[in-house]
């Protein structure tokens, strides 16, 4: 409990920024609304940088409905949530995913106690989004299982067998089975600054929010910059929690478009089960860092109703005994409208 208190006191700057951003006024509703649903697939992995440790793999498949397809109960729920805008296109989304975490040396059956514990997370999510053309609100409830029930051990061993890589040996030390939940809220303001540099559009989109649950509890805030031709109405390529929010939401222009992007996100972390260990059972754990930052940059291309993105992520040290000052991994995303 003292670690949670310390984390909050050391992260006052992030929390203040989050409050200031959430207090900003609502922008008018965009006239051009999306009329199709969007399927997004995200793969995050550190093998792009010849690594296999810490947060080593994440896969997420998500569907975001068109505005007219959201059921009545979801519309009523959106209007009841006090932070959602009174106007805006409401969509309902569903997702499934799996994440895995491993220590630095996967050849050891008994990894060092001060290294990242083996852990897996298998989950499903349901959420609501409200988009006004200038602001995106995302509310999501995620439930799933941590531990052997996540099937992360089987997944990693099978993939390593297919690619003829070393078999991980230490999964017997992974976190124990535990049901998990996360309630997440994020708000993003598209194109708060919108300019043109040498005739090429440039914009800035800040965001703020947080998560509450036995898997993750944190407050976060950050900003994303985009620079490119025929910028779609979006909020960056989708990512996997707790990374920068991004979105499955997409309204592309006709023809081919592209943009370069860069973003930063700061998190005040009170709970991370993959470092803190199981909530009610003895398990491996390490002393986490209360402040974590992500720096990302990449490229996204759009063609008609398709968006393809690649992101390089530099994440600061997440626990005190972590080897190196940062962790690098890559993220591919594909979004298609139907």
Quick recap:
By secondary structure, the protein is mostly beta strands. The protein has helices at residues 2-10, 12-22, 72-80, 152-162, 273-276, and strands spanning 38-45, 54-64, 89-102, 119-131, 135-146, 178-189, 193-197, 200-213, 216-229, 233-234, 250-251, 256-272, 291-303, 306-316, 326-337.
Note the topology:
Elements: H1 2-10, H2 12-22, E1 38-45, E2 54-64, H3 72-80, E3 89-102, E4 119-131, E5 135-146, H4 152-162, E6 178-189, E7 193-197, E8 200-213, E9 216-229, E10 233-234, E11 250-251, E12 256-272, H5 273-276, E13 291-303, E14 306-316, E15 326-337
Antiparallel strand pairs: 1-2, 1-15, 2-3, 3-4, 4-5, 5-6, 6-8, 7-8, 8-9, 9-12, 10-11, 12-13, 13-14, 14-15
Tell me the major beta sheet: 12 strands, antiparallel, barrel
Number of domains: 1
Number of strands: 15
CATH class: Mainly Beta
Total number of helices? 5
Q: Which shape, going by the Cα principal axes? A: globular
CATH topology name, in short, is Lipocalin
Class by SSE composition: mainly beta
Radius of gyration of CA atoms, rounded to a whole number? 20 Å
CATH superfamily: Outer membrane protein
Helix content: 10-25%
Stretches where pLDDT is under 50 for at least 5 consecutive residues are 1-33
Strand line-up across the major sheet = 1-2-3-4-5-6-8-9-12-13-14-15
Strand content: over 45%
SSE order, as H and E? HHEEHEEEHEEEEEEEHEEE
């Amino acid at each position: 409990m003292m670690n949670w208190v310390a984390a909050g006191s050391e992260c006052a700057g992030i929390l203040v920024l989050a409050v200031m951003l959430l207090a900003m006024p609502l922008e008018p509703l965009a006239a051009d609304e999306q009329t199709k649903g969007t399927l997004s697939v995200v793969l995050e992995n550190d093998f792009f940088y010849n690594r296999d440790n810490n947060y080593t793999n994440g896969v997420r498949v998500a569907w975001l409905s068109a505005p007219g397809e959201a059921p009545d109960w979801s519309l009523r729920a959106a209007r009841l949530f006090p932070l959602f805008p009174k106007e805006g296109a409401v969509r309902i989304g569903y997702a499934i995913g799996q994440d895995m975490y491993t220590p630095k040396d996967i050849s050891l059956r008994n990894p060092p106690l001060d290294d990242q514990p083996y852990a897996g997370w298998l989950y499903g999510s349901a959420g609501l989004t409200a988009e006004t053309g200038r602001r995106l609100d995302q509310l999501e409830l995620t439930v799933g299982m941590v531990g052997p029930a996540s099937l992360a051990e089987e997944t990693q061993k099978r993939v390593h067998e297919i690619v003829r890589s070393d078999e991980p040996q230490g999964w017997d030390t992974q976190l124990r089975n535990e049901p998990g939940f996360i309630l997440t809220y994020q708000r993003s303001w598209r194109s708060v600054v919108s300019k043109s540099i040498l005739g090429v559009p440039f914009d800035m989109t800040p965001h703020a929010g947080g998560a509450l649950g036995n898997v993750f509890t944190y407050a976060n805030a950050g900003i994303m910059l985009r620079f490119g031709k025929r910028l779609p109405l979006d909020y960056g390529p989708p990512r996997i929690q707790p990374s920068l929010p991004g979105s499955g939401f997409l309204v592309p222009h006709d023809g081919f478009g592209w943009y370069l992007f860069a973003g930063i996100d700061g998190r005040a972390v009170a709970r991370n089960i993959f470092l803190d260990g199981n909530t009610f059972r003895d398990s491996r754990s390490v002393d986490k860092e209360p402040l974590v930052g992500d720096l990302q940059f990449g490229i996204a291309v759009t063609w008609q109703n398709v968006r393809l993105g690649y992101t390089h992520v530099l994440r600061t040290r997440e626990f005190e005994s972590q080897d190196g000052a940062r962790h690098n991994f890559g993220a591919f995303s594909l979004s298609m409208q139907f």
